[in-house]
């Protein structure tokens, strides 16, 4: 008995045992990583000290935990979850394990907007104030991401939204954005290039409560909605004609799921930059752990959160006082693990 | 369907293929002429011809022989190499998202290059190319070895694609860490990333030529086997194909072609991602034609983009990679929208 039906108000899902175990195990691991994230840093605390600092505003560690470590760790976990969920949806719709939010134009559009902002404003020498980096960059990222997504969506739409055509159009649009970004990186001052590179890699440096809110809201709304759409995603494994015969209305279902993927990626990118590898790898790791034919949405999100929270713990503490962008560490941790899973499956 | 009805159709097909091949060759010829005559200093056609056949040391002769000719030759070589490598890569992984750098070749080259800067203080294009080539070869061998482990008959398309992507991401992360810590490496890397065939000199052309020539021969030899593999591995096995060998030859060809190109010109591999999608509607799924079409189209596109980059930013230049994307991608998207895509 590896799967059982779950029925709620006339809707039913197949609940797979392995997938459930992966999700719950991942959540446990995430809790552990969050606790470590609270304890470790320039000032090391015991778990008791963390608890005391959390609930006592007069405690010396209160500010460190509540204003620095907690919002940053939460941002990391939420952003990782959102990107992974976005990736899982796209990989299911495109029926392609190499698909990621990049082909939706979201992350690449955001990157161009932010790099243009950083490089063209010449902020390396104090040209732009702290306000620009606090408010300007997330807003630029969100706008750029939306422009990118609308471009891809509009160009790929032709009497419906064919998964294969979406992928091809996405490749073309991503090529334009990516190369404009490369060009922008060559025209500016090398210091600006460095700052832009940190953001492009994905960084949680200095992230506070203002970054937690938007991603938390997006996940709270979109996770239940995407789970409702799981069935139509599962049906998508078959050809379009079969799907229609199965009674799933193809175009509305696909368009809504893509919209959800776009919003998740856009909000996550605005908060922490495009952490490219999480969106691609977390769904692939999750489907290998849960042994199901396509990325399981909930498990993917949990795996993405674990990967990002764990990577940020290392990014923050391993080379102190130097800080690596979290996006670099996610790839250094996640890639060998994904390779290990592929390798194990081959044997 | 009787045999008599089939024969004229086959005849038509062959004729159409020769027409397409001729058209692509003509386009490449036009691109070469433009690349030699247009630039910061416009050179009339007969002067250009004299510079190539009977140089007398005039200013035009020097510009053409020492700058334009090597640049054009490198553009043709890299374009051929990346177009061919892209078609092979998409065929072997059966994935429209596969680019020639998928096996870690591009990121392997980048990582080796920036490492040579910080560890050995390498500073010449010459050094970058050899380190880049070595890095590309190592990364690709690593990915292929990973894909081979434990399986019979070579890596499956999905394994190859995913293992390559993971290795690429890993290497790119290391490269990013290095360039963030070292300003000189960052400065070299950002220009390498944009891709260029300018200012490379003829010695670079001679360095990459043997690798690309070998890669092109292997690629063409690989096409019949790839056709069989496209029918599915079981069918290919039934047809007597040695699957592991076919995959190994394909990967070797892609590595030589892409490694030499990105080491010499920077991260232009995405050309190889777009071009096969442009040529597939012309060739259908037969790799014996798709591969040469993609090579010729890649070379013509790369040269044209390079010329446009010289014209629009006159008297400066725009990197060829950037122009390629700006010119190639809209064309590509229009094509995708116009017809039902040929699936892999």
TrEMBL record, chain A:
Name under which the protein is recorded: Iron complex transport system permease protein
InterPro entries xref list: ABC_BtuC-like, ABC_transptr_permease_BtuC
PANTHER family to which the protein is assigned, alphabetical: FERRIC ENTEROBACTIN TRANSPORT SYSTEM PERMEASE PROTEIN (PTHR30472), FERRIC ENTEROBACTIN TRANSPORT SYSTEM PERMEASE PROTEIN FEPG (PTHR30472:SF24)
Molecular function GO terms recorded: transmembrane transporter activity
Topology class, membrane: Multi-pass membrane protein
Top-rank taxon, per record: Bacteria
Record bears the keyword S-adenosyl-L-methionine: no
Pfam families linked to this entry: FecCD (PF01032)
UniProt organism field: Nonomuraea muscovyensis
Primary site of residence: membrane
Extent of the signal sequence: none
Transmembrane residue ranges: 21-40, 73-91, 103-125, 131-156, 163-184, 215-234, 255-277, 322-343
GO cellular component, one term: plasma membrane
Subcellular location: Cell membrane
Entry keywords, A to Z: Cell membrane, Membrane, Transmembrane, Transmembrane helix, Transport
Automatic annotation (TrEMBL), chain B:
Taxonomic superkingdom: Bacteria
Listed name of the protein: Iron complex transport system permease protein
Alphabetically ordered keywords of this record: Cell membrane, Membrane, Transmembrane, Transmembrane helix, Transport
GO annotation terms (biological process): siderophore-iron import into cell
Alphabetical list of InterPro entries matching this protein: ABC_BtuC-like, ABC_transptr_permease_BtuC
Molecular function in Gene Ontology: transmembrane transporter activity
A single GO cellular-component term on record: plasma membrane
Compartment(s) of residence: Cell membrane
Protein's membrane topology: Multi-pass membrane protein
Residue ranges crossing the lipid bilayer per the database entry: 18-40, 72-89, 101-120, 127-148, 160-181, 202-221, 256-278, 290-312, 318-336
Family membership noted in the UniProt record: Belongs to the binding-protein-dependent transport system permease family. FecCD subfamily.
Organism of this sequence: Nonomuraea muscovyensis
């Amino acid at each position: 008995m590896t799967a059982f039906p779950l029925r709620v108000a006339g809707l039913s899902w197949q609940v797979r045992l392995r997938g459930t175990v992966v999700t719950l195990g991942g959540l446990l691991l995430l809790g552990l990583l969050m606790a470590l994230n609270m304890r470790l840093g320039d000032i090391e605390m015991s778990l008791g000290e963390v608890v005391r600092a959390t609930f006592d505003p007069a405690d010396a560690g209160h500010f460190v935990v509540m204003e620095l470590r907690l919002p940053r760790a939460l941002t990391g976990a939420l952003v990782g979850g959102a990107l992974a969920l976005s990736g899982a949806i796209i990989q299911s719709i495109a029926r392609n394990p190499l698909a990621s939010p990049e082909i939706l134009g979201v992350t690449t559009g955001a990157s161009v907007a932010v790099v243009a902002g950083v490089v063209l404003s010449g902020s390396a020498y104090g040209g732009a104030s702290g306000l620009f980096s606090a408010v300007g960059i997330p807003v630029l990222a969100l706008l750029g991401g939306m422009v990118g997504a609308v471009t891809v969506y509009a160009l790929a739409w032709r009497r419906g939204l064919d998964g294969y055509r979406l992928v091809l159009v996405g490749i073309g649009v991503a090529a334009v954005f990516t190369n404009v970004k490369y060009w922008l990186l060559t025209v500016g001052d090398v210091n600006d290039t460095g700052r832009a590179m940190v953001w492009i890699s994905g960084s949680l440096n200095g992230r506070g409560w203002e970054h937690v809110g938007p991603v938390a809201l997006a996940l709270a709304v979109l996770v239940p909605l995407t789970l409702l759409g799981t069935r139509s995603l599962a049906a998508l494994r078959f050809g379009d004609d079969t799907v229609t015969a199965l009674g799933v209305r193809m175009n509305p279902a696909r368009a809504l799921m893509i919209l959800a993927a776009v919003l998740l990626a856009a909000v996550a990118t605005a908060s922490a930059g495009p952490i490219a590898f999480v969106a691609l790898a977390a769904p692939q790791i999750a489907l290998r752990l849960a042994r199901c034919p396509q990325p399981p949405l909930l498990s993917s999100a949990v795996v993405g959160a674990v990967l990002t929270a764990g990577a940020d713990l290392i990014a923050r503490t391993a080379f102190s006082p130097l800080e690596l962008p979290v996006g670099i560490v996610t790839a250094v941790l996640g890639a060998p693990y994904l390779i290990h899973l592929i390798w194990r499956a081959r044997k | 369907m009787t045999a008599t009805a089939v024969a004229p159709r086959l005849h038509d097909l062959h004729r159409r293929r020769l027409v397409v091949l001729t058209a692509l060759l003509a386009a490449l010829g036009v691109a070469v002429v433009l690349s030699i005559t247009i630039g910061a200093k416009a050179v009339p056609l007969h002067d250009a011809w004299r510079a190539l056949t009977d140089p007398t040391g005039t200013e035009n002769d020097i510009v053409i022989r020492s700058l334009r000719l090597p640049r054009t030759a490198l553009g043709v070589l890299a374009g051929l190499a990346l177009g061919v490598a892209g078609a092979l890569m998409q065929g072997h992984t059966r994935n429209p998202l596969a680019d020639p750098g998928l096996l870690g070749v591009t990121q392997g080259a980048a990582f080796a290059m920036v490492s040579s800067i910080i560890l050995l203080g390498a500073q010449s294009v010459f050094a970058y190319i050899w380190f880049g080539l070595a890095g590309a070869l190592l990364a690709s061998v690593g990915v292929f070895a990973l894909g081979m482990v434990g399986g019979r008959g070579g890596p499956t398309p999905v394994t190859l694609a995913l293992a390559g992507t993971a290795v690429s991401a890993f290497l790119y992360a290391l490269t990013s860490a290095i360039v963030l810590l070292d300003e000189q490496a960052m400065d070299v890397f950002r220009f390498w990333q944009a891709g260029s065939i300018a200012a490379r000199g003829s010695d670079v052309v001679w360095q990459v030529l043997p690798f690309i020539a070998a890669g092109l021969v292997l690629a063409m030899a690989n096409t019949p086997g790839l056709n069989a593999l496209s029918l599915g591995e079981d069918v290919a096995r039934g047809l007597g194909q040695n699957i592991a060998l076919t995959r190994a030859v394909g990967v070797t060809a892609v590595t030589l072609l892409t490694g030499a190109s990105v080491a010499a010109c920077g991260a232009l591999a995405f050309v190889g991602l777009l071009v096969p999608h442009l040529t597939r509607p012309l060739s259908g799924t037969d790799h014996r034609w798709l591969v040469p079409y993609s090579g010729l189209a890649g070379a013509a596109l790369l040269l044209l983009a390079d010329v446009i980059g010289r014209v629009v930013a006159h008297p400066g230049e725009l990197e060829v990679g950037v122009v390629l994307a700006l010119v190639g991608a809209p064309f590509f998207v229009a094509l995708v929208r116009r017809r039902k895509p040929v699936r892999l």
